[in-house]
Amino acid sequence: MYVAVKGGEQAIDAAHDWLAEERRGDVAVPELSVAQIREQMALAVNRVMAEGSLYDPDLAALAIKQARGDLIEAIFLIRAYRTTLPRFGSAQPVETGQMACDRRISATFKDAPGGQVLGPTFDYTHRLIDFALAAEGEPPVAREGEANAEAMPRVTGMLGRDGLIQQEAPSDEAPPDLTRTPLEFPATRPLRLQALTRGDEGFVLSMAYSTQRGYGRNHPFVGELRIGAVPVEMEIPELGFAVEIGEVVLTECETVNQFIGSKTEPPQFTRGYGLVFGQTERKAISMALVDRALRCEELGEDNLGAPAQDEEFVIAHSDNIQATGFLEHIKLPHYVDFQAELELVRKLRSEAMAEHREAAE
After folding, report:
1. Are 220 and 256 in contact (CB under 8 A)?
2. Whose CA is closest to 232, among 99, 323, 83?
3. What are 183-187's contacts with CB under 8 Å, separation 24+?
4. Mind listing the pLDDT tens digit for each residue in 8-31?
5. What are the residues whose beta carbons fall under 8 Å from the beta carbon of 91, sequence distance 6 or more?
């Protein structure tokens, strides 16, 4: 049975108006500016840029404002806008070894070359509510340190010189672009890494946590975590060489993992890798742990059947936009489908009751 619904368009328009009113909130309270969101909610902006695959702090802040702080909705807005942009070309691979680091730590070597730079982090805070922030007109906090512009050698390079860590084989082949190439399984590692960096932070974190709890035999150390700005270069055909067109802030994590060896590999340390837009270190570390778990077969390890070792399970369920769309579509009208189900259940109940009466007689 199909029941026609009248007034739908007017109701939707009214819902949009109500949404705009709720987004603005009490008009007696000053409206948030995009600049305020960009500067004071930077970690939320970074997440939207990373999972939206578009590095633009102003657009990410605008999307957060429009979405009323719903980060997944903001990511959806950014991805939708990204599809409208023309593609002029591809940037050269960035050299994170030349990063001007705001933060750079290692959990494996105390005296890492270039030193430890704690930078802006919650790691050493007491997690107590600071009620002083509720006071209006708080004075600006003066930063005591600046980014370290000197190149910092990679910590894993120290292990590499002694042959104690797996060497990554360089490839001259350009990696496929996940935003333009349909994902197929089994996926290559570059595609997996792209999917993980776009993946939902909470989901990737849960998968990483599961590996630490034994579902995947993953025992990592943070070899190095660095956050900072790197220049972006693009080759200009008319010039015949690459020029710098800007810079992006990235978080990079390399984990060092235990590895007892296999039939194809000697005992050595192995790597997990994470690279994400902005200061998003929880995501980068999680990504590195999941990357390592997904490399089990490549390294000749036994696949224990853990969720984080199942490539299709992880990659197919990590995208929060796809997940949201599939989940939230069930709240839209399904009148025809439900009427069919309703009639079927009524028919089955009627038949079951008739059989029960016959059996009783």
Report:
1. yes
2. 99
3. 183/315, 185/311, 185/312, 185/315, 186/311, 187/311, 187/315
4. 788 888 889 888 989 889 999 999
5. 232, 233, 234, 245
In terms of pTM, does the model score above 0.85? yes
CA gap 75, 318 in Å, rounded:
14
Q: Does residue 294 contact residue 309 with C-beta atoms inside 8 Å?
A: yes
Spell out the SS3 assignment of 223-282. Answer: EEEEEEEEEEEEEECCCCEEEEEEEEEEEEEEEEECCCCCCCCCCCEEEEEEEEECCCHH
Cα distance between residue 166 and residue 299, in whole Å? 10
Phi, psi of 175 (to 5 degrees): -70, 150
Query: Contact 254/270 with Cβ under 8 angstroms?
Result: no
Tokens of 223: 């070899």
The pLDDT tens digits of the residues spanning 107-138 come to: 988 888 888 899 999 999 899 988 888 886 66
Closest CA to 250 of 147, 118, 101, 149: 101
In whole angstroms, how large is the CA radius of gyration of the chain? Answer: 26
Q: Collect all residues with Cβ–Cβ distance below 8 Å to 81 and sequence separation of at least 6.
A: 54, 59, 63
Structure tokens at 21: 């009113």
Question: 76 is written with which tokens?
Answer: 């959806």
Residues 6+ apart with CB under 8 A from 177: 194
> Rounded distance, CA 306 to CA 286, Å?
16
Coil/strand/helix, residue 293: helix
Residue 165 per-residue DSSP state: B
Tokens, residue 288: 């590195």
Per DSSP, the three-state class of 19 is helix
Contacts with 50 (C-beta within 8 Å, 6 or more apart), sequence order: 197, 198, 276, 277, 278, 280, 283
- Check whether the bond before 266 is cis (ω within 30° of 0): no
Are 256 and 271 within 8 A, CB to CB?
yes
Per-residue DSSP letter, 220: E
